[in-house]
Design brief:
Blueprint: H1 3-14, H2 37-45, H3 59-71, H4 75-78, E1 96-98, E2 101-103, H5 119-128, E3 130-131, E4 135-136, H6 139-147, H7 154-166, H8 203-217, H9 244-252, H10 274-288, H11 297-304, H12 309-356
GO molecular function: electron transfer activity; heme binding; iron ion binding; oxidoreductase activity, acting on CH-OH group of donors
Protein name: Cytochrome c
Organism: Mesorhizobium ciceri
């Protein structure tokens, strides 16, 4: 960050009213609760130095690079992690995670990324979190729009778009763009209240959708006529190659903050059990999005606990790695201590022998 921006943030923070807040207990699992490991992480991943504008690029591109790479730190969520849990720079902005939520590929790839979006659509999404026919922000991205991006100037929004357009395209496993799944909804009368739900999904999922979702999203998933409640067809969330964002939307809802008229969505995690959440999520993806995606009640239980199965495996692998490293280090220390004792004993014996002579 520039010195001016650092001082500006400091000035703002010092101007806020003081709040007495007890320090929360560290609940990170081992080895992530060990602060000394941060030093090892820094050796592998910390890049020091300030942002340097590229003189061969336009002012808009450099401003966009500064916003994306520095102030916005978009890669913290949108870039996958490497074996040391640092950002994998070989796959920059190719998609990552924000906790359990999936942060999508935002490179210029036309299938896996946002290459099929127009500049106007990208700008609109950053400013409002909603582009009918493409995507609606949820989870941490909705909160980012609500608390941060909506307040940027139009010039800054366009600078971000200019920079993202120049990030090298990164392909993925997607068969088609996330927003291309699902047929356009056809509902007679008000999309929010009339029509009969049709299509795939279990009876339980169908019943849950009718009772909990159809009033806002429409019986056939078309959303509300004024756009305040999103369509579920042609929507990147149900059309994603993984089910986490649909499931987390059901569990936690969406905090939209009424940005550009978007309404927030209630969380159903306290009302539905794991099997019901899984049934509803599978119904939504099968009926309106990617039919190849599904989730189980066990997956939902894992998400409620704060992680995905893959993340749990990574934690267990890290724990095993650290445990093995600790055992190896202990073994080396014991071996070194044994050799030192032998050397000390030998020196003493030689000294005693000389004394006797």
């Amino acid at each position: 960050m520039s010195r001016e921006d650092v001082l500006a943030i400091r000035t703002y923070l010092l101007a806020q009213p003081p709040i007495s807040q007890p320090q929360p207990r560290n609940i990170l699992p081992f080895p992530f609760n060990q602060r000394w490991t941060v030093a090892l992480w820094k050796l592998a991943n910390l890049h020091t130095g300030s942002f340097t504008p590229d003189r061969n690029r336009t002012a808009a591109w450099n401003r966009g690079a500064y916003l994306v790479e520095v102030l916005g730190h978009c890669g913290a969520c949108h870039t996958p992690r490497n074996a040391t849990f640092g950002m994998d720079e070989d796959h920059k902005l190719a998609g990552g995670t924000a906790g359990i939520w999936q942060a999508f590929n935002i490179t210029s790839d036309k299938i896996a990324g946002v290459g099929g979006w127009s500049n106007e659509e990208l700008s609109r999404f950053l400013k409002t979190g909603a582009v009918p026919g493409k995507a609606y922000a949820g989870g941490p991205m909705a909160e980012t729009v609500m608390n941060s991006l909506q307040h940027l100037s139009d010039d800054d929004i366009q600078a971000i778009v200019a920079y993202l357009r120049d990030v090298p395209a990164q392909s993925g496993d997607e068969k088609q763009p996330r927003f291309s799944w699902g047929n356009a909804a056809t509902v007679d009368g008000d999309a929010g209240t009339e029509g009969m739900t049709q299509g795939s999904g279990t009876a339980a999922g169908d019943d849950l959708y009718r009772s909990l979702c159809s009033t806002c999203h429409g019986a056939n998933g078309g959303g509300s006529s004024d756009g305040s409640y999103p369509s579920l067809t042609r929507n990147s969330t149900p059309g994603a190659a993984t089910p986490e964002d649909v499931a987390m939307t059901i569990l936690e809802g969406v905090k939209a903050g009424d940005v550009a008229g978007r309404k927030s969505m209630a969380a159903f995690g306290g009302w539905l059990d794991d099997g019901q959440v899984a049934a509803l999520a599978n119904y939504v993806t099968a009926r309106f999005g990617n039919p190849d995606v599904s989730v189980t009640a066990a997956d939902i239980r894992q998400m409620r606990a704060g992680s995905t199965t893959g993340q749990t495996i990574m934690v267990l692998a890290a724990q095993s790695l650290v445990a093995c490293a600790a055992v190896l280090m202990l073994g080396l220390l014991l071996l070194l201590a044994r050799r030192l004792r032998r050397r000390t004993s030998s020196v003493r014996l030689m000294s005693a022998h000389r004394d006797r002579r």
